[in-house]
């Protein structure tokens, strides 16, 4: 099958904002897994650097950078006016020798470009939003920084696609509330690289205290503030926060300064450690160094951090929402607490850190759960069956 994957943002090494790096990692891994299954896969991203080659072959699939808009990084809001041009470029390209049998849009801007490209054809469109503006607005409130046109455009996009792919059950419910029929929403969670994330291997250095690790951008919506406040109830343990700018730039980072000031005010400054950005290929060593991984973001559609931690055999304490609630089986692979309940979070962390046998059992169950339900092979297989279904039911457009 010929598959076109569309993400209108530039790749992670060149963008300024937009979808998180994890979105591009997700697309690349899906493309590679589909290629292994014998499909002809092409990935389309915006070209924002004229010095970067427009075509490249990677892991069995073809990457094509679309020369639309200025050759410079652009924030999401400034990408929207270029969606018709992006879609027109794709339509022209697909009118030649290579024409996809199914197109899969990623993130809302990529989905708009994909839908625009195929609007006069019989090519079906599958869409993965990765996050929904209406959900982010509900959970983040004033911290939501998406462009104003995002939510109405996402609603319009749901009416233009053949099938929407949700990454968690909360997202399934949200998409149906937005007007999609339940039969037009498929739940396909993200995958985990179990060759990279596994229990055996090196661990990052640590002292004798128990270690709680949390991973995420240094931003108010990441939930780091809740964990710092909860540390008052945890006792003698360290909280390691991985994420944000590189370690040597933390001093000048506003959110890093705010979190450190908060730790001083609540009396846990000696227990809180900010390590800055950690390359993704080194994250497994940090997960293995932790006794517990805490996942407390105010919004998480995929739950990637909880899954990577579980794959490394580490129990997770997380907020019962989004992808975290789907990934973590309460009292089997970790503990779930009500979102925003700092007291419950602190008490749960303290009790789990004191329960060595419980953490051991949770860790083993976590590894089994990831290997059974969250491998990239399983994700690609589900998408492959979904593509076959939408291609089979789409009828040609009459002249």
From TrEMBL:
Transferase recorded as keyword: yes
Signal peptide start-end: none
The cross-references to InterPro entries, in alphabetical order and at most eight, read:
Glyco_trans_1, Glyco_trans_4-like_N, Glycosyltransferase_grp1
Record key words, sorted = Glycosyltransferase, Transferase
Q: What region holds the Glycosyltransferase subfamily 4-like N-terminal domain?
A: 22-196
Q: Which residues form the Glycosyl transferase family domain?
A: 206-356
Which Pfam families does this UniProt record tie to the protein? Glyco_transf_4 (PF13439), Glycos_transf_1 (PF00534)
Q: EC?
A: 2.4.-.-
MF (Gene Ontology): glycosyltransferase activity
Keyword Cell inner membrane belongs to the record: no
Using the record for this protein, list the coiled-coil segments as residue ranges, or answer none.
Answer: none
Which PANTHER family does the protein's record reference? SULFOQUINOVOSYL TRANSFERASE SQD2
Name of the protein described by the UniProt record: Glycosyltransferase
Q: Which organism is it from?
A: Micromonospora cathayae
């Amino acid at each position: 099958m010929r598959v076109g994957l569309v993400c209108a943002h530039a790749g992670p090494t060149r963008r300024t904002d937009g979808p998180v790096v994890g979105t591009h990692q997700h697309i690349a891994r899906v493309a590679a897994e589909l290629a292994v299954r014998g499909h002809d896969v092409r990935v389309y991203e915006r070209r924002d650097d004229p010095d970067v080659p427009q075509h490249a072959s990677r892991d069995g699939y073809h990457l094509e950078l679309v020369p639309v808009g200025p050759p410079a990084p652009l924030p999401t809001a400034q990408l929207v006016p270029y969606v018709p041009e992006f879609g027109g470029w794709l339509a022209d390209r697909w009118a030649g020798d290579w024409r996809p049998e199914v197109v899969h849009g990623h993130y809302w801007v990529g989905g708009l470009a994909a839908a625009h490209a195929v609007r006069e054809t019989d090519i079906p469109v599958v869409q993965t939003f990765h996050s929904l503006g209406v959900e982010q607005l509900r959970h983040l409130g004033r911290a939501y920084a998406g462009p104003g046109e995002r939510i109405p455009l996402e609603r319009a996009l749901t009416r233009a696609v053949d099938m929407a792919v949700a990454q968690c059950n909360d997202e399934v419910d949200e998409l149906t509330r937005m007007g999609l029929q339940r039969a037009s929403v498929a739940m396909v969670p993200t995958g985990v690289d179990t060759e990279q994330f596994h229990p055996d291997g090196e661990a990052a250095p640590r002292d004798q205290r128990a270690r709680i690790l949390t991973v995420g951008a240094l931003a108010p919506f990441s939930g780091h503030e809740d964990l710092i406040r909860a540390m008052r109830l945890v006792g003698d343990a360290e909280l390691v926060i991985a994420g944000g700018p590189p370690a040597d730039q933390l001093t000048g980072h506003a959110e890093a300064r705010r979190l450190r000031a908060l730790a001083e005010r609540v009396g846990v400054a000696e227990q809180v450690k900010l390590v800055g950005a950690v390359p993704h290929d080194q994250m497994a060593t940090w997960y293995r160094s932790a006794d517990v991984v805490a996942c407390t973001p105010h919004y998480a559609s995929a739950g990637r951090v909880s899954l990577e931690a579980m794959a490394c055999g580490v129990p997770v304490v997380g907020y019962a929402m989004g992808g975290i609630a789907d990934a973590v089986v309460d009292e089997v692979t970790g503990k779930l607490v009500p979102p925003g309940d700092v007291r419950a979070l602190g008490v749960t962390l303290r009790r789990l850190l004191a329960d060595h046998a419980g953490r051991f059992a949770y860790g083993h169950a976590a590894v089994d759960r990831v290997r059974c339900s969250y491998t990239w092979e399983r994700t690609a297989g589900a998408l492959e069956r979904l593509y076959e279904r939408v291609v089979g039911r789409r009828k040609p457009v009459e002249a």
